[in-house]
Amino acid sequence: MEIPYLLRFRERDKVIGTPMKWFIPATVVTLILLPAWGSAYAVSFLVSTFMYVALAGSWNLFSGMTGYASLGQGLFFGIGAYAFAVSTVLLSWPPVAGIVLAALVSGIGAVFLGFVLLTTRIRVAYFAIVMLGFNEITKTVVANIKAIGSSSGLTIPPLPSNLIAYYFLLGLAVAVTAISYLIKRSQWGLGLKAILADEVAAEVTGVGTVSHKMVMFILSAILTGLTGSMIAWYWSYIDPYMAFDLGVSFDMVVMAIFGGVGTVMGPVLGAVIMSVVKEALSTSIPQFHTIIFGALVLALIMWCPGGLMQAVDVLRRRLKRDAGPVVGRVER
Amino acid sequence: MKADQNAVLEVEGLDVHFGGVQALRKLSFRVAPGKIVGVMGPNGAGKTTLFNLVTGVYRPSSGKIVFGGTQLQGLSPARICRAGIGRTFQSGRPFANLTALENVLVGLYYGADAQRPRAAHAKRRGQEILAFVGLAKLGDRPVSSLNLTERKIVELARALATRPKILLLDEPLAGLNPLDLEPAIRIVRRIRDELGITVMWIEHIMKVLMETCEHLIVLHHGEKLAEGSPADVASDAAVSDAYFGKKGAFRLE
User: Fold this and answer.
1) What is the CATH T-level fold of the domain B1-84+164-253, as seen in this structure?
2) Which of A17, B128, B224, B251 is deepest in the core (most CB within 10 A)?
3) Cβ separation of A193 and B140 shorter than 8 Å?
4) Residue B57 and residue A203: Cβ atoms within 8 Å?
5) Residues near A51 by Cβ (< 8 Å), separated by ≥ 6?
6) Which ranges in chain B are annotated with CATH 3.40.50.300?
7) Measured between CB atoms, which of A194, A203, A326 is closest to B95?
8) What ipTM does the predicted assembly reach?
């Protein structure tokens, strides 16, 4: 029986170990208090970091947990951004209503796409490409609709304070991670793991695979759309090429895989590290960070298919010389 | 748990073709509750296809599958599982990313019998099922660290956890170490004898089917070649022709 490489790493049952028990709340509290003394630069850096954590985590909720890798999940980021921009700028809705609408439209979009793509036994590779295609189609369509600014985009009244984006996205990042943690511990999460391992075997064991996939897809889309709506407001301008940039879709995938597909903390780690690398390199050598990061991801995945979460586990074992139970070991 | 008298599986005029290939042709049979029924036939006879149709993995081109009075054709595999049909796969397909106990838990959480067990209770039930198949000590081991025999038995335990009334076993003995054959056969017997679950059993080792089953169905090129008690089937001329050719020197004993 061959084991797909994504399954070779099994996350420790105690996802949040004893040291993490105080480390995570402490980090969150520090981040809540940080704007009081942090510079504007720190805030803007953290806004984009939170955005990436929320995006990678949202991607992981569906693709990481079911194995249906979506290469166009950024579609919902764009949909959320446009829903917000159109409702607040063109319809003069209050921003809160714009954000709610973004969640709603992303969710409805996911219901429609999920119905087309996930109710049949489509191959994972087709799904990945079709999602990418939908992102591109939507981009082109939006760029050709005059009523919503076509390719020149929409200008949105700026945020009263960047702290709104800061706290909203911090909350979203924490929420995505918490949701992922709760789902993984639940019976529903066990069903998802079964789907990830072998969808047909899961079906004949009674797992309602369509409902599991649909719910996770819609959840992932809503959270991605919410991120998009706030980022649109934060940018105070969007055009189709920013909103439906394939870079968003790819970043989600790469960060989640780098950190550890299907794990709770993996997307967080991946997104944080990638944000730092991006920030360090993008000012001096723009776009160069993608090469560095590509090499980094490749090297890591060849050594540890389970990403950083597995690398940490392997290192911890080496340091402690701990043979331990076979639970976290790599199967070759 | 005793056999449910309504749990009769009836297959009527089952036809399926994939493109131009007719995999099953006008297949009809009836499985009485509480029996161990062997399904045999040469490679490509349609045995696994039959299981895939009964469990909803494939859809029949025409024909009826009735189980305990409900028509199954067109239902999703999950619904069919919850109606009381469990199965294992030929190659052994337990969930490799889970432990043995978690595999069984999936069956307990999602299988037949609507009320969902609470986690603590489910774990106890899971351990009982693992003990029943003789894997009590391996509950916490990830399936990826188990050998083939253990994996296939975990899969069997997972199917049992869905509380089936009828269990479809697709070559449970294939690939097993010869030393593991006897214990595995004993488990299948106990599933019927102690749990009262009807068993349909595909196997290539004819001696085992002849000795264990009360009823045999022989498929050949997608059609039913013979059906009856092992003694009847063994003396059936058509069966030995299919297996050994018309002038075959061997005869089934």
Assistant:
1) Rossmann fold (3.40.50)
2) B224
3) no
4) yes
5) A169, A227, A231
6) 1-84+164-253
7) A194
8) 0.91
